[in-house]
Amino acid sequence: MKRVLSFLILLALVAAVASASCWLTRRYIQPSPPPAADGEVFAQLDLTPEQERKINVIREQFNTSRQHCALLMNQRNRELAAVILSDKADSPRVQAAVEQIHEAMGDMQKATLNSIFAARDVLTTEQYGRLLRLVAEQLSAGAEHPCCR
Question: What dihedral angle (degrees, nearest 10) is formed by the CA atoms of 59, 62, 66, 72?
Answer without folding.
Answer: 160
